[in-house]
Write a structure and sequence with these properties.
The strands form three sheets. This protein has a four-stranded antiparallel beta sheet. The protein has a four-stranded antiparallel beta sheet with strand order 4-3-7-8. The chain has a two-stranded antiparallel sheet with strand order 9-10. Strand 7 and strand 8 (about 125-130) form a beta hairpin. About 15% of the residues are buried. It is built from one helix and ten strands, in the order E-E-E-E-E-E-E-E-H-E-E. It has one helix at about 130-140; strands at about 1-10, 10-20, 40-45, 50, 85-90, 95-105, 110-120, 125-130, 145-150, 160-164.
Amino acid sequence: MLLTTVQAYPSGVSMIVSAHLRTPVAGDDIGEPISDGRLQLTIELPDGQRLTGTEPLPEYEHPNAQRLRPHQPEDDEWVPEHAVLRRLGGGRSESVLDQEYWLWPLPMSGRLRVSCQWLEQDISLSSHELDAQLFRDAAAQACPVRVERVLGPAFGEQAIAGSP
């Protein structure tokens, strides 16, 4: 198991966990995160909260999640009342599986413990501590990018320009 990619944003952290598979995985998915024997990632935040990706998602607590009202500008500034670890998409080959996770919001300064196990792959529990301040420092350097797509004269031809 490897934590291969970590990207920090002002709103949270994107992480990719890569596993080198010992045996083939059935189907296209690694299973529900709460299934016995499946890949399990746990993040322990500096304040002691433990996130497994199985907690209720905060958008179900947010009024706009049920589309009870139109999108409001303040929605972009909304943050959950509690930390959230969400399992996102992934990909795999015959021997490697990549699974993306989103940690929201950006963790406070301190030690962040990342634990992982995958019993079906005979991978026992392993934990590592990371300095969450590194994520905060990286996120402080992030700047918004505006992307414009301009179609050219030939069908499908386009130029992409970005600017802060």
